[in-house]
Amino acid sequence: MTQASTVADPAGSRSTPFSSNSLRLSGAEWIVVLVLFAASLVFGPLLWSRIETFDPEPNYRLPYELGSDYWLYSRYCGRACSQDKTLIIGDSVIWGHYVRPESTLSGYLNEKTASDRFANLGVDGIHPAALAGLLGYYARAISGKDVILHLNPLWMCSRKVDLQDSKEFRFNHPKLVPQFTPRIPCYRAQFSGKASIIAERYSTFLSWASHLRIAYFDALDLPTWTLEHPYENPLKAVTLKLPAVDTYDEKEHVSWTQKGLRKQGHDWVKLETSIQWRFFKASVDTLRSRRNNVFVLVGPFNEHMLTQSSVEKYHEMKRAIESWLQQSGLAYYIPPPLPSELYRDASHPLSDGYASLAQQLLASESFRAFMK
């Protein structure tokens, strides 16, 4: 505790409390502080976007370690939209979890059309409930564009994955799901945490501050980072250079059968009760309300990896999805399963699988009509 002393008033009429660690500002100085603070709130993110190096090349994808950097995702959306790209949006199947950036679906579409028209706006681990929030709060720049929206049926393979379980568990991208309503049964967080998440959605400054933590401070707040790096200057950590795009040695990735994975039996949920399906439809509504031309790609799911009873339930769900797409007047493509050896797991193709999928897509009548 700091001991306070008194200093005699020059007029000699009274004593003024004084502390060695006190800071006194005059009224004019407080005004200057408030003006500088307001300027940083308004102009800080804008100025930062001009000085931080960000020049995405063709086939760019958000680096894996920046998957929760929604400020950067918003910035990437703006860049891709300004270049009039066809945007491919979805989870790790679009992002390309086991392949190099040029070997993703967008990469092969660019190669086969001899262009750089297609932009990879996939985010690793982005399930439909989170994707609806990403599009709603951080992808406002996507308006009046051609959009390929991916639906991975894997997110509806069980009540738990569909977020229906009442028991709490951790899932991907909790900052993007509804914080209060509609309620996510398995999502529990403190009120203060939920309130800060909502504030960040509507404050560019807070979103930018989160970007700085994720990109330069290992996703830690500054006090925690300094404790873990006691001899490092935090200013030197801010290099103004974002992490490089992820690359993979594809020789290390083999098919699911070579990996020794077994067939699985999933308890597929019904569409009418599915939380993830409800949010997928919300994403479609959001994109359409912004005058985007939406094309839906379903799968390709690895049906070879399913038990017979699970395949039958999946086909039933797939028919229900197609019926809704038709009733909604959406252009879509549901590809047949790829050859078994072209899958790495239940939903991710290997490089040759993406090449085959791109070829099928370009050959489909619905996609050719969409591309006109």
What do you see in this structure?
The protein is of the alpha/beta class and 372 residues long. It has one domain (42-371): SGNH hydrolase (Rossmann fold). It has 14 helices and 7 strands. The strands form 2 sheets. It has a 5-stranded parallel beta sheet with strand order 4-3-5-6-7, sandwiched between helices. A hairpin with a 6-residue loop joins β1 (5-8) and β2 (15-18). The radius of gyration is 25 Å and the shape is globular. Mean pLDDT is 90; it is low at 1-8.
Strand percentage: 5-15%
Q: What radius of gyration results from the CA coordinates?
A: 25 Å
* Global outline: globular
- Label the CATH architecture: 3-Layer(aba) Sandwich
Characterize the largest beta sheet: strand count, sense, and whether it forms a barrel: 5 strands, parallel
Averaged pLDDT: 90
* CATH C-level class: Alpha Beta
Counted by DSSP, the helix tally is 14
- Low-pLDDT regions: 1-8
For CATH, the homologous superfamily is named as SGNH hydrolase
Classify the secondary structure makeup into a structural class: alpha/beta
* Oligomer description: single chain
The neighbouring-strand order within the major sheet is 4-3-5-6-7
Assign the CATH topology: Rossmann fold
